[in-house]
Structures are given as C-alpha cells and as structure tokens.
Design brief:
This is GNAT family N-acetyltransferase. Keywords: Acyltransferase, Transferase. The protein is of the alpha+beta class. It has one domain: 3-Layer(aba) Sandwich (Aminopeptidase), CATH 3.40.630. It contains five helices and eight strands. The radius of gyration is 16 Å and the shape is globular.
Length: about 180
Amino acid sequence: MDSEAPAPLLPGVRIRLLRRSDAAGLSKAYLRNRQHLAAWEPERDEAFFTPRHQLDIIRAKLAQHSVGQEVPWVLVNRDDPAYIVGAVTLTGIVRGPFLNANLGYWVDSGLNRRGIGAAAVRFATDHARTELGLHRVQAATLLHNEPSRKILTRAGFREIGAAPQYLKIAGRWQDHLLHQLLLHG
C-alpha cells in the first residue's frame, strides 16, 4: 500500500501508513480518547500526549518498519486525512519458521460500534497474509474486553488460552486472553 494514498476502509474512514507528520494528529487523538483508552493501555505520563513525544514514538515505529519488524497504520477521516481516528499495527514480526506478528488496534471512542475496528483488523490480517507472507497473527485482550474479543472472533481469531499477569495495563499486571489467526492451511 502506498503510504501517500490512504485506502478506503469504510465509508468516512481511510487507512494509511503512519507518517512523521502525524505527530500532532496523534497527540490530538490520544488527548481526545484519553479516558476511553485508559482502561486498555499502559499508564501514560503527560509527555505521552504531546506532539514531541508522539514524534519520538513515530520515529521508533518507522525504524522498526524499515527493517520489516512492524507495520504501523493510522485510521483517518476521509475528508480530513490529518484527523486520526484510530490505529492498527502489526508488531514483533518474526520470519523463519515462526512467520508471526502481534496485532494491536484502537478506534476513537466516538466511532465505536460502527465496524471500524473489525475492518481495520481484516485489513491488517489480509496484509499479513498477502504482503508479508505470514503464517500466524496473534492478539491479546483483557478478560473483560468483550468488544475486542468479538471483533477478533468475527475476524476468524480463536482463543488459545489465558496468560496470567500478561501486561501491565492501567497500572497493574492483568490477565489476558490470547488469540490467534492462522493465515495459511
């Protein structure tokens, strides 16, 4: 996918690769969704919400992308491509006999329950299959994150087990359900 041309995802929403110029837009999106995302993400200090810190994160993500270890996309408003409404990322891409990546995503709180998360997950897993040639994509959800679990199930992911104290989310180590999607055979 050309990073300069956002691809249609759903009516009103497009997807494209992350750019350095997205720092201010990501800062605004995270500020707008601060309360909404707090329960699902690590604790964030004030610096996280600044364009300067977002630029540092973007640089790190693009460095990982340049060596084939990450694919970071942003979801943007169709009419205003600087207005970020979510993100989806394949991280920890491993080649060799594993051919695996981790999936993460979030959608603006004002756009929940419109199919955007599901469309972003399908887009990322299709890319993992067709462009990256991966065998497997995995994702983890908090036990009580029913909406995300439903999105993954609809996209063909299967729960494969629980991981006690898997990630430090909202300030404490929390159990997660692990999911996988086998992309080939």
